[in-house]
């Protein structure tokens, strides 16, 4: 990661169409230097929150690209969901994380906002620290009336004129672009299905109704349960645990209780440690009593930013996590094959006196490097597929119509997963002809690494093909499955042919 890190957390008005979400993620990941660190989709809210990190320049470009992508894919005229919204990309906040300032984030927000308004013709409202009007610092003021209300007022009410872009709404709606400190998006579910209780509790705890400072809250009905949905904008001033306890007391007044809570996106470590200290009554506790804090560099305050550092690949692979380890292992194997091919090509360039051969090798290295990036993108896209919300929804009590909708949604996710895996398999199989081309243009010193690379790439391809075969039960479209099977079969034949050709190139050279 770069020395200066800025976080961006776009909120998209979509959670039910996996293909739309995949295309938005792909648009983000095509910007060099961007890392997606979290994604949260809520089917009832019909909303997806993506958290990404990058340098100031890369985060600025990725933010614009994801808004542009979402604008062409999400139609607010057809959108339904529990969460208030004004646009396809509803909000786009920038947050300073490391070696970055709020001033930088404000400047980025205003540049991106101007570009969205000018190039995409989407109305933009600046909020929080980036706001140019005091009455627009609060997001709820901008979002009042939602998309439908803003559509009526933007052409007639001067107070609703955007900071950038036209004074009219297309089907992409408007976007609120801002700069702020980290906040905690946190939901509390009650042991009741009465939405009025959630609304009453939300009114008591939110600051705008006279409640807790730095707390924004709404009452909703999600998965058949009353939910108090919150944003805590300054957890150091109003803590998570005090907010939860206030909800607990208010719930008791209405004969209900807290069923469970839910974190949306990421949370600062300090917020969890503060709550742990309070609930455990560790009055004399200090943060340097935490084991991991002794293993970080710098001051004790660094525990808010760092833990044990980055684990090795094998440590990560053997850990218990939601990431699909077998897919990561296959992609890593294919990437190793690519690295061996590049090594041979570079050695050939160094040892050759032929300008033509050097030129061919440089061109091949560029192709292989490009392939490595596409391989990485394909693997990340599979790892970020939000299938969990679908499974969670299916496990809830549903009427027959809802159950049918959930089955259809799960089939769509299964289809997308098979398509994504097939793309990854295609990238693995395409490595073999590249190894063959390098072999045809290099000296015999490359025989061992190139043959090893071809076998690694074929192993990766076979692993992905086996995973795809296990996914067919997710899809009832027999023609779709037959087409995928044909694709994999043809690629298998092609891979075997490339391996034979490469072996023939070095025939007789192996001792």
Describe the structure.
This protein is α+β, with helices and mostly antiparallel strands. The chain has 4 domains: 5-179, Formiminotransferase-cyclodeaminase, Chain B, domain 1; 183-267, Formiminotransferase, C-terminal subdomain (Alpha-Beta Plaits, 2-Layer Sandwich), CATH 3.30.70.670; 270-306, no CATH class; 321-505, Formiminotetrahydrofolate cyclodeaminase monomer, up-and-down helical bundle (Four Helix Bundle (Hemerythrin (Met), subunit A), Up-down Bundle), CATH 1.20.120.680. The chain has helices at 18-29, 56-71, 102-119, 139-142, 146-153, 195-205, 240-253, 269-279, 313-318, 325-351, 355-383, 388-394, 400-429, 431-440, 447-471, 478-505; strands at 5-8, 11-12, 35-42, 47-54, 89-98, 124-128, 175-179, 184-190, 215-222, 225-232, 258-264. Strands 1, 2, 3, 4, 5, 6 and 7 form a 7-stranded mixed β-sheet that branches. It has a 4-stranded antiparallel β-sheet with strand order 9-10-8-11. It is elongated. It starts with a strand and ends in a 6-residue tail after the last helix. Residues 297-310 and 383-389 have low confidence and may be disordered.
């Amino acid at each position: 990661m770069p020395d200066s890190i800025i976080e961006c957390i776009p909120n998209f008005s979509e959670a039910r169409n996996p293909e739309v979400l995949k295309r938005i993620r792909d648009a983000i990941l095509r910007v060099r230097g961007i890392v997606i660190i979290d994604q949260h989709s809520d089917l009832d809210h019909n909303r997806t929150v993506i958290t990404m990190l990058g340098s100031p320049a890369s985060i600025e470009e990725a933010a614009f690209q994801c808004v542009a992508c979402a604008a062409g894919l999400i139609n607010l005229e057809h959108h339904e969901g529990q969460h208030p919204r004004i646009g396809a990309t509803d909000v786009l906040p920038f947050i300073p994380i490391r070696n970055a300032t709020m001033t930088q984030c404000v400047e980025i927000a205003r540049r991106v906002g101007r570009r969205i308004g000018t190039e995409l013709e989407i109305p933009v409202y600046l909020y929080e620290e980036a706001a140019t009007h005091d009455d627009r610092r609060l997001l709820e003021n901008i979002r009042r009336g939602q998309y439908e209300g803003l559509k009526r007022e933007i052409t007639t009410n001067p107070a609703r004129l955007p900071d950038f872009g036209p004074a009219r709404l297309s089907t992409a709606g408007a976007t609120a672009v801002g700069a702020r400190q980290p906040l905690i998006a946190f939901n509390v579910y009650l042991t009741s299905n009465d939405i009025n209780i959630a609304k009453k509790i939300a009114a008591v705890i939110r600051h705008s109704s006279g409640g807790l400072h730095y707390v924004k809250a709404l009452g909703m009905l999600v998965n058949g349960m009353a939910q108090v949905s919150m944003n805590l904008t300054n957890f150091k001033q109003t803590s998570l645990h005090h907010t939860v306890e206030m909800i607990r007391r208010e719930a008791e007044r209405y004969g209900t209780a807290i069923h469970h809570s839910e974190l949306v996106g990421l949370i600062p470590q300090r917020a969890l440690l503060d709550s742990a200290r309070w609930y455990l009554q560790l009055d004399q506790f200090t943060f340097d009593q935490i084991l991991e804090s002794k293993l970080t560099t710098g001051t004790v305050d660094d525990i808010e930013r760092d833990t044990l550092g980055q684990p090795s690949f094998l440590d990560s692979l053997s850990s218990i996590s939601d990431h699909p380890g077998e897919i990561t292992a296959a992609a890593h194997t294919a990437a190793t094959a690519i690295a061996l091919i590049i090594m041979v090509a570079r050695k050939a360039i160094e040892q050759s006196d032929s300008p033509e051969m050097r030129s061919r090798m440089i061109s091949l290295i560029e192709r292989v490097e490009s392939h490595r990036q596409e391989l990485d993108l394909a693997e990340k896209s599979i790892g970020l597929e939000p299938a969990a919300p679908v499974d969670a929804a299916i496990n809830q009590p549903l009427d027959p119509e809802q159950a049918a909708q959930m089955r259809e949604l799960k089939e769509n996710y299964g289809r997308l997963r098979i398509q994504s895996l097939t793309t990854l398999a295609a990238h693995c199989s395409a490595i073999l002809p590249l190894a063959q081309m390098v072999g045809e243009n290099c000296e015999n010193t490359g025989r061992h690494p190139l043959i090893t690379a071809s076998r690694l790439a074929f192993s990766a391809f076979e692993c992905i093909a086996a995973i795809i075969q296990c996914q067919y039960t997710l899809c009832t479209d027999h023609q779709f499955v037959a087409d995928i099977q044909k694709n994999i079969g043809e690629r298998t034949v092609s891979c075997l042919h490339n391996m034979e050709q490469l072996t023939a190139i070095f025939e007789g050279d192996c001792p």
